[in-house]
Amino acid sequence: GQLDEAKAELKGQLDVIANEILELSDRVTMAENEAATAHFRSANDTYSDVSEAAESATGLTELESLSDRLDMARWRLEASEALLEGREVPAEPEDRPAHCFFDPSHRAGVEEAEIRTPAGSKIVGVCRMCAAKLERGETPTPRSIHVGGRPIPAPQAPRSYGGGGLDWLSAFSILVGGRNRGASYDLGRTRNVRSTKGSSSGGSVLGRLGNRRSGTAPITGRRTTTSSSATRSTRSTTKPRRARTTSPKSRSSTPKVKGRARRRR
Q: Which of 21, 189, 220, 224 has its CA 20 to 30 A from that of 207?
């Protein structure tokens, strides 16, 4: 049914975020930047919470809420990386999804873009890669998300599937960087979008990298309902579990995710 379909899409997006967390972990540890570490840990905590909640979700409304939380994890990872690279932290989106308009499995939509339709205009977020394409006059291809067995462009897909939720969107142009002309789309007339069911072929395929560094236990954040704080190491398991930490400068901030580690090329 649609619930299982939406869960599969959301889990695929979780796999992508897990990989981003793993790739950023060493840089955060080595930099010892408190602000970057705080953003990283918050993203890590959210990832762990959403991973667990998605397993037991019983309705699309729950998945929509989890999708919103996952968007904030995306933004915090971008904020952490910006601090590590000496860039300005992107503004936190307040009234729009934080994922990339074209593909939620891209990096966070930290660049503002304007979509113009016959009915008016709206601000959306696109990732830095898609923003660069638009500035070069190219037209990024929206990914499609399977909804009810049919491929739906990500901007139109429901929020419970991690999509943009803009089911009213059809013909529009999108502009960035003050350009006078933008890329034109007609999502209602054509469906020539890349058809995938998320970035993963099903199930978690990522692994914990906690054992990469000898003697360092992976950390997946704190439970907000726990008043005490004690450091403990964790062992490999098939379900995400979290270790508590007493210091924001803990030597490792690697998340617990399932399966084997896979780095993006």
A: 224
Q: Indicate if the pLDDT at residue 100 is higher than 80.
A: yes
Q: How far is CA 237 from CA 45, 207, 208, 218, in A?
A: 17, 10, 10, 12
Two structure tokens written together for 184: 């034109």
Do residues 195 and 213 touch, judged by C-beta distance below 8 A?
no
Torsion, Cα 166 167 173 179, to 10 degrees, reads: 0
How far is the first Cα of the chain from the last one, in angstroms, to the nearest whole number?
A: 33
Task: Judge contact between 189 and 176, C-beta under 8 A.
Answer: no
What is the number of residues in the chain?
A: 265
Task: For residue range 51-69, list pLDDT tens digits in order.
Answer: 999 999 999 999 999 999 9
* Cβ–Cβ < 8 Å for 264, 23: yes
Tell me which amino acid residue 165 is: G
